[in-house]
Amino acid sequence: MPATASEMLVGASSDFLKRFSPFNRMEPEALGFLSERAVLAFHARGSEILTPEMGQPTHFHIVQRGKVQARQTGPASVTDYAAMTLGPGECFPIGAISAQRPSTNAYVAVEDSFVFQLPAEDFLKLMQMSPVFHVFCTQYIASLLNQSRQQLQSTFAQRAAEQQTMTTPLGQLVKKAPIFVTPDSSLRAALEKMSEMRIGCMVVTDSEQKPLGILTQSDLLPRVVLPGIDLQRPIGDVMTRTPHVMSASDSAYDAALEMATHGVRHLLVVDSEGRLKGVVSERDLFTLQRIGLRQIRSSIEGADDLDALQRASRDIRQLALNLIAQGIGAEQLTQFISALNDALTCRIIDLARARHDLYGIDYAWLAFGSEGRHEQTLSSDQDNGIIYVRPEGADPTELKNRLLACAKEVNENLAACGFPLCKGNIMASNPDLCLTLDEWKGRFGDWIREPDPQALLNATIFFDYRVLCGNERLGDQLRAWLNRTAKANANFLRMMASNALQVAPPLGRIRDFVVDDDGTIDLKKSGARLFVDVARILALRTEVASSSTVQRLRQAGNKMGIASEEIAALIDGFHFIQLLRLRSQHLDTEHDAPGDNRVNPDTLNELDRRILKEAFRQARKLQLRLRLDYQL
């Protein structure tokens, strides 16, 4: 029997919806429900589809053809700033119809447009029917990001089939029942059990099987053999207390990051009750990837010349690219890269210190910029400095010259390992950036009191610092002083806010994106920087100590009472831009190459274009908050 006109319309609606997220993953029954009840409506150019004055929305809308502009209502300057364009497959108003309140935006057809309309009561039924649609509406950008990661992983399906990935939960890596002793067990009994079971460490637990400590093979020589410890003594006397513990639900990536950050080779895995489930070693993680953490850590720790350090640097880049292929998220990836680069830098510093006889000098090596924020991508130059204590009676010129000579060697060796010398000379070998604590306070204080354009530029670089190695207390003292001083100077914060609004998200009024002459967008300047700059100001205003953009948004947002779902959406937007930057940087690309941070949106698939557009909208929301807070 031939299909009726009604059935043909429903089929056409379904075919269209299947081209877009989340409808392409929606359950067949739910998709059929939506296709049957959605009615296609025509809206002439310039006509209002929905405004706040219309009250509670009566329909959920999905753009089928044409363009619809959404703009926040209010003063003209704010309205112009907050306009955005929706195209085919995009929906509105998700928040208003879910909360059953009037929309805060006005939606106007900017060209003749066809829009599906679903009655509000059917929208609510659809959310109940479809878990996919429910997640999409409540966690919009997070849902899209998850689908993008799945799509990326499918590109590397063959590799994923050949090996477990770094997203594997630790509970799945633990294959054997846990082996442990109590703290009063003798060393002899523990060592005999290690030999019998052929294991490289012994875990010590309490009577409830909750970890108390660990003794590894590498501990035996310095703690047992050389001191001549009586093997009848309890293992609790020589074990490492407070061992590194992770949950069985944590991923192999989380374990690798913990090992890379703290330089440990064994992690204790516990269940939800805190009881020992097993041990994961570097060897276990090594089997998950072609270039392993153990390889890289060992090569860094054992490196005693520049060639070995250069090989380790190349391995870090290859491992990061493997993790991108496995769908690891941007926050984890940039933390992983930063942790391994930290280890590499610290080894370079250790070798240089020995040659320049700096032992006994109280100092801290500072990382600025993206490295200071734990946000290094595969393309970063050097931004570093030194903070030190001048001992009483020491010759200040001689001491500083020794530090500068050591720093020059470190900077040159970092450059040889693929981190170019900073074109702006923001490096520890610059005498202006090798300063005592009081001198750093004076430098920061001058910028805060006289916030001219150069001072504001300096603040965007130097305020994002952390101690990479050395005495962390020096960095903490400077941070506490800096936060108090900046918060007390409202004019400085207002000028920083004005500076942060100089670059707007590259969203077009008619076209999806505003691109440069070569058809690309600079994801660093016009993407990540928008989040970084606002997060820095919010952190100074609320005295958040972290230098990480994500932690600044989380902690400052909580202090300011921003809704948790709004904070999550901002962070998801930032993460996606970071992920696109990482994906555009290849192994054979030189660090800081001209095209490293650029993307042509026309080359992205439809899903990634949509997420990028949403990420820029989140940046726009963040900037709008700043604009309103400081009346700019």
Automatic annotation (TrEMBL):
It holds the Pfam family CBS. InterPro entries: CBS_dom, CBS_dom_sf, cNMP-bd_dom, cNMP-bd_dom_sf, Diverse_CBS-Domain, DUF294_put_nucleoTrafse_sb-bd, GlnD_Uridyltrans_N, NT_sf. The keyword Manganese does not apply. Residues 174-231, 239-296 form the CBS domain. Signal peptide: none annotated. Keywords: CBS domain. Residues 22-127 form the Cyclic nucleotide-binding domain. CDD domains: CAP_ED, NT_GlnE_GlnD_like. It comes from the Bacteria. This is CBS domain-containing protein. It comes from Aromatoleum toluvorans. The lineage of its organism: Bacteria, Pseudomonadati, Pseudomonadota, Betaproteobacteria, Rhodocyclales.
